[in-house]
Each structure stands twice: as structure tokens, then as C-alpha cells.
Design goal:
The chain is an all-alpha fold. It has 13 helices and no strands. The protein is flat, with a radius of gyration of 22 Å.
């Protein structure tokens, strides 16, 4: 889905790779030369997206490219590394080692590391299954919202990339079409549909991002989500000046039910999506427009 920040990020095409490579070692940086130093590659200074550039800079000399290597294989390996190590540790050198090729071999298929990140980002959108065609729009919206949330939790590295790059790859566009089709079916006037789309999926983006990072933090500490939560709440309850906050939090958690963090989170998500759907229905009924 094309993100809210796309118009801003288009002028900063290398921002994701800059942040990702900042933590790479000096030797890693050496393995990722400027495009001008690689024969057959044009400068990336004006690049905004791999999807807006139809050139295949490496394939003009494909006879010299590594045997058994192609863009799909490179993209799949990129996703594996990003899942395992995260965005900050991703580098061309690590990817080359994963594929058992030289770092320079990768440049037969992509111009920059940002190209790889865009390709990886779009590839995981294929994991979002289309909603049931025979379901009403409310259930289709719930299905898409849940699938997007699960994607963000499963691949926590996509959150910053989705807010940086133009999300106009083929898989991302299929997701966008599915979302637009559901919003169109709500019966909202055309001028209100973009706002409804944002209300649902900007919320899911934030919810899934926080959930994914909380889960990753728990995994990194070796604690379960319940153990981490109990430890944090115990620390808060021990602070006299935070007693009012902790007591109210305890009341909320007790009232909403659920024995585990995951159960409580699930209840919150389901209710929040229902609230947004109810809001869409209310705004539609105010206009007198029928649902499609």
C-alpha cells in the first residue's frame, strides 16, 4: 500500500540503506561501492524506486553473471537475512555470503542495497491472502486488517521500509487493490473513502509495529511476553508516584479479560477494528449512501 510518507521519501531514495549500513563494519561498506564505480551502472542519485526504473543494468552482460543466481533467489535470501538479523545488520556482504557469491556479483541484478530492500519488502506482501469474495465488506475488512497485522509482526523490518519506500511493487499493489475494493463496498461517498482507508490501515500499521517490536524485545531478553509484562508492571507498581497509573492499568486489564498478554492484545485488536467499522457505518448512514 502506498504509504502516507511516500511523497516525502521520494526525495530521499537512499534513506533506508543509509540507516541500515550505518551499523555495518568498514569492510562491509567497502563491499557496497557507489554505482558510478561499477561498469554498466548509472548513478543512483536520482533514483526514487526500483519499480520506477525499468532498466536491467546487469543483464546487458548477463553472460558473465554468476551461474544459478537470479533476482528472485537474491530477494528470497534478503528476506531470510532480514528476518534473522534485522534491518540494521543487513549488508551486501552478508547477503553475498548467504548466497556463496561475491558481493560484486549481486550488482549484476540490482543497482543498490535499497533496490534489494524494496524487492524484499514487496515480496512479503504476497503472504497476504485475498479476502473471501462471498463475505460482506465488514468481514473482508477484518480479514485484511488481521493479515496485515500478522505480516508486520512476522517481519518487523517492513515497518520502517513501508514508511520510506514507494509501495508500488506488484504484490503491494494487489494488496492495495483488495483494500480499495473493500472500502469501495462500504458505500461511503468517494471523498470519504481515503479517510476510512487511513483510519483502518494506519491503525493496523501502528498496532502491528508495536506488537512486533514488543515480541522481538521479549525474545531478545529470553523472557516470555507474560514474564516481560509482569516484570515491567511490577517495577511500575513499586514506584509510589506511579501508583495511580498502575492501579488504573490494573483495572483496565482486569475488565477486558484475558489470561495472557496475547489474549489481552487480541481482544484489544478485535474491538478496535470493530470500533472503526462502526464508525464507517455511522458516517455512511449520515450520507444516506447504501453499502455495495
Amino acid at each position: 500500500m502506498v504509504s502516507e510518507t511516500d511523497s516525502e521519501s521520494a526525495s530521499e531514495p537512499d534513506s533506508a540503506s543509509d540507516s541500515a549500513s550505518a551499523s555495518d563494519s568498514g569492510s562491509d561498506f567497502v563491499s557496497e561501492p557507489d554505482s558510478a564505480s561499477v561498469p554498466g551502472r548509472a548513478s543512483s542519485a536520482a533514483r526514487t524506486s526500483v519499480w520506477l526504473d525499468r532498466r536491467t543494468p546487469s543483464r546487458s552482460r548477463k553472460s558473465e553473471s554468476p551461474a544459478g543466481l537470479d533476482r528472485n533467489r537474491i530477494t528470497e535470501a534478503s528476506v531470510r537475512l532480514l528476518d534473522a538479523d534485522g534491518l540494521a545488520k543487513f549488508s551486501m556482504r552478508r547477503l553475498a555470503a548467504e548466497l556463496d557469491v561475491t558481493a560484486m556479483s549481486l550488482y549484476w541484478y540490482v543497482d543498490t542495497k535499497d533496490d534489494l530492500l524494496e524487492l524484499a519488502l514487496d515480496s512479503v506482501y504476497a503472504e497476504i491472502a485475498p479476502p473471501r469474495e462471498d463475505a460482506d465488506w465488514q468481514d473482508r475488512l477484518r480479514e485484511l486488517a488481521r493479515s496485515y497485522r500478522e505480516l508486520l509482526v512476522r517481519h518487523i523490518w517492513i515497518s520502517p521500509l513501508a514508511g520510506t519506500f514507494l509501495n508500488i511493487g506488484p504484490n503491494s499493489m494487489l494488496f492495495s487493490y483488495a483494500v480499495q475494493d473493500v472500502i469501495r463496498a462500504t458505500g461511503l461517498p468517494l471523498e470519504r473513502q481515503a479517510g476510512a482507508l487511513s483510519a483502518v490501515f494506519q491503525f493496523v500499521y501502528g498496532f502491528g509495529t508495536v506488537e512486533g517490536h514488543f515480541k522481538a524485545r521479549c525474545d531478545a531478553t529470553g523472557l516470555t511476553q507474560d514474564e516481560y509484562h509482569q516484570q515491567a508492571m511490577g517495577t511500575i507498581r513499586a514506584q509510589p508516584h506511579l501508583r495511580e497509573v498502575s492501579e488504573y492499568s490494573d483495572e483496565i486489564m482486569s475488565a477486558r479479560g484475558g489470561d495472557t498478554v496475547e489474549e489481552m492484545r487480541e481482544r484489544d485488536f478485535v474491538f478496535a477494528v470493530d470500533v472503526v467499522i462502526a464508525g464507517i457505518e455511522t458516517m455512511r448512514d449520515r450520507t444516506g449512501a447504501p453499502a455495495q
